[in-house]
Write a structure and sequence with these properties.
Domain Solute-binding protein family 3/N-terminal: 28-246
Shape: elongated
Pfam family, one: SBP_bac_3
Distance between the termini: 29 Å
Structural class: alpha/beta
InterPro entries: Solute-binding_3/MltF_N (IPR001638)
Strand content: 25-35%
Largest sheet: 11 strands, mixed
Low-confidence stretches: none
Helix content: 25-40%
Protein name: Transporter substrate-binding domain-containing protein
Order of helices and strands: HEEEHEHEHEEHEHEHEEHH
Number of helices: 9
Number of strands: 11
Keywords: Signal
Length: 260
C-alpha cells in the first residue's frame, strides 16, 4: 500500500534530530501490535510469512513512511504485554486502549477508535442482561492485564473475573462452558459470535475506552510527532480507508482531538 506524506518528517535541525532520536532511537521504528485469530480495528492477524496484517500494522507502516525509516514489528498476544514492552522501551510506539493505570506507565496521544466493551454469552445461557452477570456465581473471562478486564471488574464487582492470555483462549472457555461470558469490545465480539452458534451479545456496555497511540514516558518530542501524525491520518481519510479495506465499514473513526 502507498501511504501519503501528510506529516512532515523531522527536520535536520537540533530539535528535528532529537525528535527522530526519541521516535526511533535505533534508527528503526519498533512498533507494537496485538495478534488475535480474527482481525479487528485493533487486533492484527498474521500472513503466511508471519508478518502482521491489519489496521494498526498499516498505521505503523504509514508512520514509518512519514519518518523515512524502516519498521520492525513486535507482535504481542495481548495489550498488557504490549504495555510492558512500551514502558520498558523494548518498543517505541504502539496503539492500545487507554485507562488510568496505563496513563501512569506510558504517554498517550489521540485515539483513532472508541471501544465499548460488553459480554458474549452462549445461546443456552440464562443471562439476558449485563446486570445478570453481577453475581458471585457468574464467571466472566477477559484478557489479562488489559483495560477491558479492569473495566469489567469495576462494572461487575460481584462476579468472578477469569483472566486469559489471548482472545482465542477466552473464546474456548466460553465454548467449553468454563465461563458464562467473555468481555471484549462489541465490534470484536461480533467477529467471534458466528463461531459459537446461538451465542448472544448483550445490550449495553461494561465500559468504554479510546484506543490511542502511545509512546514511552519522557519522550515529549515523540509524543508530539505521533499525535500530529494520527490526527492527520484521521483527517486525511487514511484511518477510514483502513477500516473499510479491512471490512470494518460500520466502525466509526474517533473524532479529532488534541493529545490526551
Amino acid at each position: 500500500m502507498t501511504y501519503p506524506q501528510f506529516t512532515q518528517p523531522p527536520s535536520t535541525s537540533v530539535e528535528g534530530q532529537a525528535t527522530r532520536s526519541q521516535l526511533a532511537p535505533s534508527g528503526v521504528i519498533k512498533f507494537g501490535v496485538v495478534f488475535a485469530p480474527e482481525m479487528s480495528n485493533f487486533f492484527v492477524v498474521k500472513d503466511g510469512d508471519g508478518q502482521p496484517r491489519g489496521v494498526t500494522a498499516e498505521l505503523g507502516k504509514a508512520l514509518a513512511t512519514q519518518l523515512g525509516v524502516s519498521i520492525d514489528f513486535y507482535v504481542a498476544p495481548n495489550s498488557g504485554q504490549l504495555t510492558d514492552a512500551l514502558e520498558s522501551g523494548v518498543i517505541d510506539v504502539a496503539f492500545m486502549p487507554v485507562d488510568e493505570e496505563r496513563r501512569r506507565r506510558v504517554d498517550f496521544g489521540p485515539s483513532y477508535f472508541v471501544l465499548q466493551a460488553t459480554g458474549l454469552v452462549r445461546g443456552d445461557s440464562g443471562i439476558n442482561a449485563i446486570a445478570d452477570l453481577d453475581k458471585p456465581s457468574a464467571k466472566v473471562a477477559g484478557i489479562a492485564n488489559t483495560t477491558t478486564i479492569r473495566g469489567t471488574a469495576r462494572a461487575l464487582p460481584s462476579a468472578t473475573i477469569v483472566s486469559s492470555e489471548t482472545v482465542g483462549e477466552a473464546m474456548e472457555m466460553l465454548r467449553d462452558g468454563r465461563v458464562d461470558a467473555v468481555s471484549l469490545s462489541r465490534d470484536v465480539l461480533a467477529l467471534y459470535q458466528a463461531g459459537i452458534p446461538g451465542s448472544r451479545i448483550l445490550d449495553g456496555h461494561l465500559h468504554s475506552a479510546g484506543i490511542a497511540i502511545a509512546v514511552p514516558k519522557k519522550r515529549p518530542l515523540a509524543l508530539s510527532y505521533v499525535s500530529e501524525f494520527l490526527e492527520n491520518a484521521k483527517g486525511s481519510g487514511l484511518v477510514r480507508k483502513l477500516f473499510d479495506d479491512a471490512g470494518l465499514v460500520n466502525d466509526k473513526v474517533a473524532p479529532a482531538e488534541s493529545a490526551n
